[in-house]
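To the wet lab folks,

You asked to see what we're planning to order before we commit. Fair enough. Below is the target structure as tokens, and below that is the sequence we designed to fit it. If anything looks off to you, flag it before the synthesis order goes out.
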């Protein structure tokens, strides 16, 4: 694994200024560059060329999504990006939905063409940790990856495999930017070491 595409889904909107997502995106760029990885960056809200983004996915060994949690999921700009880029990738990012009349054993969702490549979510939420882990709280203890189940499945439709999610919580009511940066640096290091071990 040597090529990493970093997608920044932060956006200035209402009371959100996108600063923490910009900061974490920049941290990842520095950490990865210093570690010798080749990186490409797209700040989604600044605009993008759809065909170039398809080429970026083909180039990348790992895609990192940096984004805030808005209304229990990804911001609309990130969903729009995926709708446009993934659809334009028909024939290169995925062949079809995986099914075949000639081979009925092939199942829906098995037509991705990016096998061996990985993706990772880095997420910022105002919700506290226990909102994700406590069964009697709002998110019913389902965990962050269950909240993002459709997002994960969209990437897995391309045959991308998930690396562990990074989650920063309570980012508005109880912000700890320095602590969050330290945890993210550690997460990146541990996750990349884990990904390397899978290649051996």
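Sequence we intend to order:
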């Amino acid at each position: 694994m040597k090529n990493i595409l970093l997608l920044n889904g932060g956006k200035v909107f209402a009371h959100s200024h996108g600063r923490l997502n910009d900061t974490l995106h920049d941290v990842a760029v520095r950490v990865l560059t210093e570690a010798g990885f080749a990186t490409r960056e797209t700040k989604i809200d600044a605009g993008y060329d759809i065909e170039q983004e398809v080429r970026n996915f083909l180039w990348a060994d790992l895609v990192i999504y940096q984004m805030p949690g808005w209304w229990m999921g990804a911001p609309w700009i990130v969903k729009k990006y995926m709708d446009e880029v993934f659809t334009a990738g028909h024939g290169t990012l995925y062949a079809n939905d995986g099914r075949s009349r000639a081979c009925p054993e092939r199942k829906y969702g098995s037509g991705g063409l990016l096998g061996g490549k990985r993706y990772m979510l880095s997420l910022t939420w105002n919700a506290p940790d226990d909102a994700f882990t406590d069964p009697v709280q709002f998110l019913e203890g389902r965990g962050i990856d269950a909240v993002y189940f459709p997002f994960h499945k969209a990437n897995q439709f391309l045959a991308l495999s998930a690396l562990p999610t990074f989650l920063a919580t309570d980012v508005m009511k109880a912000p700890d930017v320095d602590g969050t940066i330290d945890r993210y640096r550690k997460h990146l290091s541990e996750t990349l070491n884990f990904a390397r071990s899978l290649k051996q």
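Structural context that might help your review: The chain has a mean pLDDT of 92. Strands lie at 3-8, 38-43, 62-68, 118-124, 161-162, 166-168.

Thanks,
Computational group
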